[in-house]
Amino acid sequence: MKTAPTYAVASVDHALRLATMLQLEGTLSVAQAAERLGVARSTAHRLLQMLVYRDFAVQDDARIYHAGPVLQLATHSRSQTSRLRSAAMPHLDRVVEVVGESANLTIRTGTTARFIASVECSQTLRVGSREGMVFPAHRSTGGLLLLAELPDEELSVIYAEPVDDDGDPPELAALRKELAVIRAQGFVVNQGRSERGVVAVGVPVRDEDGNALAGLSISMPEVRYEKGRLPRLVATLNRTAGAIEASLTA
């Protein structure tokens, strides 16, 4: 996961988080914003009003905030990430209902993996939303799936420079062996690698040409993971990945 700046500015972080919520989720009330950020309603109101002032948000007659002109530019551009997230969200909801665990969609940029969509399950003990978070690719489920798609020479190129993550870059020879196994089996099990006490299972989501676009995964507390369920979990994930792929080409 990315390390927070030494001199983090809380108000800036709150405003950026609200902007991300508006762009990815659509709408927010002051009460919802306050709850999500863990701040007073007056603070949330001031932050949202500043976003309105800078055109990152607009407020309707019911006092609900929506993505403003600046954020809508990205939405209207229909970037691959935007289309991928829109296509995936209904299917993430369904897979959460089926397996009873939280689900995520992840893309890779260089040596990092970013969660672009996340749906929490309703269980009291659950893995929370990872949306917007960035992890080292070699430590995340989706990141490993997408690294496994790379030719050896490209893997060498992206790890040629020092990796700016947690100061623990991968040992390439060992990583190549692991990625070869992932590539051959078509799925990955991440047991405590991203976060202690969490197990994730993932499969790739592909485009029409068979290229991996993203990693689809479900995450659960380690105490609920049963190895005997793995074939069924993988089969469910593969069906869901196929449904997302079909939605992308519809």
Topology:
Blueprint: H1 10-25, E1 27-28, H2 30-37, H3 41-53, E2 57-59, E3 65-67, H4 69-76, H5 80-99, E4 102-109, E5 112-119, E6 134-136, H6 141-147, H7 152-158, H8 172-185, E7 188-191, E8 198-206, E9 212-221, H9 230-249
Antiparallel strand pairs: 1-3, 2-3, 4-5, 4-9, 5-6, 7-8, 8-9
Which terms summarize this structure?
alpha+beta, WH-like_DNA-bd_sf, 6-stranded antiparallel sheet, transcription regulation, Tscrpt_reg_IclR_C, 20% strand, DNA binding, Helix-turn-helix domain-containing protein
In short:
The protein is an alpha+beta fold and 250 residues long.
3D structure, described in words:
Pfam families: HTH_IclR, IclR_C. GO terms for molecular function: DNA binding; DNA-binding transcription factor activity. This is Helix-turn-helix domain-containing protein. InterPro entries: GAF-like_dom_sf (IPR029016), HTH_MetabolicPath_Reg (IPR050707), Tscrpt_reg_IclR_C (IPR014757), Tscrpt_reg_IclR_N (IPR005471), WH-like_DNA-bd_sf (IPR036388), WH_DNA-bd_sf (IPR036390). The chain has 250 residues and is α+β, with helices and mostly antiparallel strands. It folds into two domains: 67 residues, Winged helix-like DNA-binding domain superfamily/Winged helix DNA-binding domain (Arc Repressor Mutant, subunit A); 170 residues, GAF domain (Beta-Lactamase, 2-Layer Sandwich), CATH 3.30.450.40. 45% of the residues lie in helices and 20% in strands. It contains nine helices and nine strands. The strands form two sheets. A six-stranded antiparallel beta sheet has the order 6-5-4-9-8-7, sandwiched between helices. The protein has a three-stranded antiparallel beta sheet with strand order 1-3-2. The longest helix is centred in the middle third of the chain and has 20 residues. The mean pLDDT is 89.
